[in-house]
Amino acid sequence: MPTVPHVINGQRRIGTGVTPIYDPATGAVTRYAPVPDDALVNEVVTLARTAWQDWRHSTLSQRTNILFTLRHLIVQHGDELAEIITSEHGKTVADAKGEVARGLENVEYACGLTEHLKGQFSSQVADGVDVHSVREPVGVLAAITPFNFPIMVPLWMTANALATGNAVILKPSERDPSVSVMIAELLHDAGLPDGVFNVLHGDATTVNRLLEHPGIDAVSFVGSTPVARHVYQVGTASGKRVQALGGAKNHMVVLPDADLDIAADAAINAGYGSAGERCMAISVVVAVGDVADPLIEKISQRLDRLTVGPGADPASDFGPVISAAHRDRIISYVTSAPADGITVVRDGTTLRIGDGFFVGPSLLDGVRPGVKAYDDEIFGPVLGVTRVASFDDAVALVNANPYGNGTAIFTRDGNAARLYARRVSVGMIGINVPIPVPVASYSFGGWKDSLFGHAHIYGPEGFAFYTRAKVITTRWPQPSESQIDLGFPTTR
Ligand code: NAD
Q1: Among 303, 318, 265, which residue's Cα sits nearest to residue 95?
Q2: pLDDT, tens digit (0-9, with 9 covering 90-100), for 102-146
Q3: Cβ distance 196 to 167 under 8 Å?
Q4: Active-site residue flag, 111
């Protein structure tokens, strides 16, 4: 059984396979991922620090050239990248191609680094004194990523971290790590010097070693909320800057004036796409006033038309979930729902396709705070409906939720939509857009338990996170200006 190699200092390094990697469509183990010992973690950090010493002084045109070439290579190899993702994650090939495209956006944004890295200059802030600012790289970044977007999330971090002159150690999810190896090889082919980007596989022990390692300067983490909280606490206690993006419970509010066909389409796409394994998936539809019954009817009609099957089959609308344990956990929320007073409108738990990790779509009516199916992030193809009386009740429900990643509102009323966007404590809001993942020239991030640390990821906030500010105050005095003055310098 093959073991996925690390990529260290530009070379593949084979370790002992420890963690099984499955093809979720068949349930078969296809390869293993290694878990490095402390000596290997130390070696990679040392190599990355050494490579950074040159890379931090690379010219902006050299970096731009490499990123442009990377963009070209990702486009050229897009189909292959998508197939690797499908074989380990299980999502449909079309969905994997969408992920590649959204990751590519970040490379394209980073290609504009000469513009994004411009400093500022103020002439004559005091007599004969000028001030200018520059941003310098932070150092070595540990990029720790989840299973559900195995290329997009690494590119959220990598493109901007390299553009700003940092070295990167990517610790991908141990459940679908192979595409990371290809990213490393494409970066190598694009001309990135050895050691500037490394892929180190591993598990929680590897993450903890990196978090405490004195040779790591910054940590970008994306994953579940309990781990994000831990990563933030341990990383900052070790003196690093950390951005740790966590889980979600995204609400889609449907007002009585909404077009219910459009809203039902959106609920299907955002609730069941990628088997619900998206951090921006809609997991709760908040039906305001009397829209619940007709909306549930329209969602049910659409569920009849969904096909669940292997991600490699073009007929599949969504594929399996990531593991047998995750499938069983998802199923438990549906089977326990009636005991919590929830109506199971559609039960997808009995679907079986060979030994694959499949779960059919489920629809629950009556989820509400205080029951597991509402309180927990299910991260599967289970959509809940909550009934509320008014717009204000909808806002209160969303704001009382501990997560604040994304939310959407469906309405024809521009003022209601505007008020919603202003009142909710959520980082990303869609108005008649169910999955409002910002384009790469904006930054991505949630509020509350969906993000620990202040910096959103990618876009302008990504450039800020991966750099430190330096401000230089300059004066070129004439010999005639020589004088002793112990007063605090002022600009007046
Ligand atoms: P996860 O938290 O289990 O794993 C994420 C990473 O952390 C992996 O690399 C893993 O090896 C590591 N890890 C796991 N347990 C750890 C521990 N105890 N200590 C240290 N490191 C540990 O997440 P996942 O299941 O791979 O991904 C799904 C989760 O990620 C969902 O909660 C989803 O909402 C979230 N997510 C959030 C965003 C976002 O942008 N907010 C994006 C994608 C996914």
Answers
A1: 318
A2: 999 999 999 999 999 999 999 999 999 999 999 999 999 999 999
A3: yes
A4: no
Which residue, among 185, 141, 207, 200, has the nearest Cα to 4 in the 3D structure? 200
pLDDT in tens, 219-251: 999 999 999 999 999 999 999 999 999 999 999
Helical H segments across 118-273, by residue range = 152-163, 178-189, 204-212, 225-237, 260-272
Where do you find CATH 3.40.309.10 in the chain? 250-431
Buried (b) or exposed (e) across 41-72, using 16+ Cβ within 10 A? bebbbebbbebbeebbebeeeebbebbebbbe
- The finding on whether 199 has its CB within 6 A of some atom of ligand 1 is no
CA atoms within 13 A on the CB side of 50: 10
The string of DSSP codes covering 288-357 is ETT-HHHHHHHHHHHHTT--B--TTSTT-SB---S-HHHHHHHHHHHHTTGGGT-EEEE--TT---TTS-
DSSP single-letter state for residue 457: B
Distance CA 114, CA 378 (A): 42
Residues of the chain with CATH 3.40.605.10: 6-246+450-472
The C-alpha atoms of residue 267 and residue 285 are separated, in whole angstroms, by: 7
What's the rounded Cα separation, in Å, for the pair 110 and 161?
A: 9
175 alpha carbon – ligand 1 mean position (Å): 11
The catalytically annotated residue of 40, 141, 260, 279 is: 279
Integer-rounded Cα Rg, in Å, for the chain is 25
What backbone torsions phi and psi does residue 204 show, to the nearest 5 degrees? -60, -35
Rounded distance, CA 308 to CA 122, Å?
Answer: 60
Ligand 1 atom 23: residue of nearest CA: 223
6-246+450-472 maps to which CATH number? 3.40.605.10
Q: Which CATH architecture has domain 250-431?
A: 3-Layer(aba) Sandwich (3.40)
**pLDDT band (50, 70, 90) for residue 368:** very high
Run of H or E including 448 = strand 447-448
Ligand 1 within 6 A of 150 CB?
no
